[in-house]
UniProtKB/TrEMBL annotation:
Organism of provenance: Paradesertivirga mongoliensis
Domain Sigma-54 factor interaction: 81-310
Protein name (database record): Sigma-54-dependent transcriptional regulator
Cross-referenced InterPro entries: AAA+_ATPase, AAA_lid_NorR, CheY-like_superfamily, Homeodomain-like_sf, HTH_Fis, P-loop_NTPase, Sig_transdc_resp-reg_receiver, Sigma_54_int
Keyword rRNA-binding assigned: no
Keyword entries, A-Z: ATP-binding, Nucleotide-binding, Transcription, Transcription regulation
One Pfam family, short name: AAA_lid_14
Keyword Transmembrane helix assigned: no
Length: 393
């Protein structure tokens, strides 16, 4: 029936309900396009919430999909999320559209790409903004403490439980819970998390009464959950439970034009913090920053700008003010390697030489030294790859 409905009226939201809930059935249903899957007996509040979410997602009265960056800032207060990249603007349009609903979101992206910032923006624009935003780093919770951390415990529930403890779900009640690093959760804890996300009920350790909770769930990960599902490291039913809306934050290297914007934004804040109103980044350095690999993404850029400000006495920051903080890490980076099949040897060589030329501002001796080549060999390679250079003595 779900298939028939989705064929005839694809935009009609469908919630499946069953007294014979099984994992496979739930997963099949979500894959088939159901917006939720509810087991009987149901919890009235949860059912209402599921209905509201499905309805809100299907009507888009103000259609933020067409809003410009400026309008998005005005309406949703996104000023602190800097960038003009089309991928970022599309993400902001999506979160503007879904923030008011209770839809669960999965935010994917490498470390330091702004996942937490996006999660906070969703909460701030939701109807839950006056309640708590509770962040839990699941990567930092051991499997033995998972239940006590998340659901709380009563005094005496286990040997070390000297006092009652309020769990994170209770703290987040009526607000938003942000489950960071969800890909790091072991399989046992995944089952326990699934249950509360599915039924919105849980038990405090040492107390047999069930508690209900009303939360918006936003998850984040830098791992490929789909691949983990295929390798049986992540439960498929949990995956479908958390990913009603998926947001993929691009790494900084895919939005290099945003780098100068971000660097200047961080600089603006530092001007105030350190009371140095004339700080600026010179044009050459601004452009140079765009070519840095920055595996730690926006967090790394922020730290780099801050270090340059702290250690430079001049107000105008130049390439060398940034460079000195990078050399060590760049060297370490080289040994980290790329997955097989990413690049051919020639492509890798070309990209290394180009990066080194930008990094050392076309100084042939320094580039040759950094790459472990003689100047003669470097010149031959520059010719081979058609990379412009000036002959230097
Ligand atoms: N678009 C942006 N504009 C301004 N600042 C940003 C932006 N994105 C991220 N930041 C800043 O960069 C830093 C890292 O961001 P955040 O902690 O949100 O990343 P994350 O993806 O959650 O990282 P992790 O995976 O390591 O938890 C924070 O200081 C955040 O404020």
């Amino acid at each position: 029936m779900l298939q028939q409905i989705k064929k005839r009226k694809p935009s009609l939201p469908v919630i499946l309900m069953t007294g014979w809930g099984s994992i496979n059935l739930a997963v099949e249903g979500m894959k088939g396009g159901a917006s939720d899957f509810i087991n009987k007996p149901w919890n009235n509040e949860h059912l209402m919430q599921a209905l509201k979410t499905a309805l809100n997602l299907s009507d888009e009265p103000e259609s933020p999909g067409t809003l410009t960056r400026k309008k998005l800032n005005e309406k949703y207060g996104f000023e602190n999320i800097v960038g003009e990249d089309p991928q970022l603007i599309e993400i902001l349009q999506t979160i503007a559209r879904v923030s008011k609903t209770d839809a669960s979101l999965l935010i994917m992206g490498e470390s330091g790409t702004g996942k937490e910032l996006i999660a906070e923006a969703i909460h701030n624009n939701s109807n839950r903004s006056h309640k708590a935003f509770v962040k839990v780093n699941l990567g930092g919770i051991s499997s033995s403490l998972f239940e006590s951390e998340m659901f709380g415990h009563k005094r005496g529930a286990f040997t070390d439980a000297r006092n009652d403890r309020v769990g994170r779900f209770e703290l987040a009640n009526k607000g938003t819970i942000f489950l960071d690093e969800i890909g790091d959760l072991d399989l046992n804890s995944q089952v326990k998390l699934l249950r509360v996300l599915q039924d919105r009920t849980y038990e405090v350790l040492g107390d047999s009464r069930s508690k209900t909770v009303d939360v918006r769930v936003v998850c984040a990960t830098n791992r490929n959950l789909k691949a983990m599902v295929a390798e049986n490291q992540f439960r498929e039913d949990l995956y479908y439970r958390i990913n009603l809306i998926i947001v993929r934050l691009p790494p900084l290297r895919e939005r290099a034009d945003d780098i100068p914007l971000l660097a200047n934004y961080f600089l603006k804040n530092l001007k105030e913090i350190y009371d140095r109103p004339n700080l600026k980044i010179d044009t050459k350095a601004s452009n140079w920053l765009k070519y840095l690999p920055l595996p730690g993404n926006i967090r790394e850029l922020k730290n780099l700008v801050e270090r340059a400000v702290l250690l430079s006495e001049k107000d105008t920051l130049e390439v060398k003010d940034f460079e000195q903080h990078l050399e060590q890490r760049q060297a370490a980076n080289l040994s980290s390697g790329l997955p097989v099949g990413t690049l051919s040897i020639d492509e890798m060589e070309l990209s290394m030489i180009k990066n080194a030329m930008v990094f050392h501002q076309n100084n042939i001796s320094r580039v040759a030294k950094a790459l472990g080549l003689s100047r003669g060999t470097l010149y031959r390679k520059l010719e081979k790859y058609n990379i412009p250079y000036e002959t230097q003595n």
